[in-house]
Amino acid sequence: MRKCYIQNLALIITNKCNLNCSHCLRGEKNNDCMSDKVIEATLNQIQGIGNLAINGGEPTLSLDRLEKIISYVIEKHIPIDEFTITINGTIYSKRLLELLEEINRYIGSKSVNALLAISLDKYHLDEISKLKIQKEFLENLQKYQESKYFYGYRNTKQKLFREGFAINLDEKLTVPLRPIRPLITYVDKNKKFNRENGLCNIGPLVTINPNGIVTECDASIKNQENLYNYGNVLNNSIEDIILAKGELILKPKKFEKESNRLLKRYWTYNR
Ligand code: SF4
Q: How far are the Cα atoms of 42, 76, 121, 161, 166 from residue 169, in angstroms, in the given order?
């Protein structure tokens, strides 16, 4: 199996969550967490990552999974340019900040490249006030904001994808999920296209769920298993899974251009 470079790799490390927001794209939660086997099978086939994004569920409920990922990246010397994690802010974790410190030091550039985002919008706030944990939540925000890794808040001013519990919202607030099309190229040392011996580059975004399924970043837990189940890293290489989808193999320059275009279109689609 040859290794690949992935422009943006999203790992859904857990399906656990302590909230039950009415707009949640994941829908019904369960206790699935990414196993050591899935983490190793994924990272063993990776030569480098542009952005490594950690999602959930609520990642602070499965910090041992984050520890495993970070220690494995460091142990295997996998180059990454940027690391991001999104949490719901209801749990303050000093250990999380220590792990961000660790991965930021490993990335090693002068600027901060380990970023912490907190979901904050009316749906999260409704849930937080229902649980009567506003005071703790605000205290947590205060503490997280003081960290140099705090990047900002993620809100939902845009429309939501019609996945999970979001299918119950007013239709005007949602749009159907548009799967993000993966692209592949092969680049040799001279930066030329070389399918035989080049490094496999995949973009713009590959998402892997707790059970090793290559899927869509914003899909519900149910749809990750069915509609958007493209294959499992425990059985096949990411490269073969993407190729089996019949995706286009592009020349390097076209790949970069198209990949940037697709990512931009994805984040702004109808939103
Ligand atoms: S939106 Fe996030 S915080 Fe809210 S229930 Fe879903 S996973 Fe949990």
A: 35, 44, 15, 10, 5
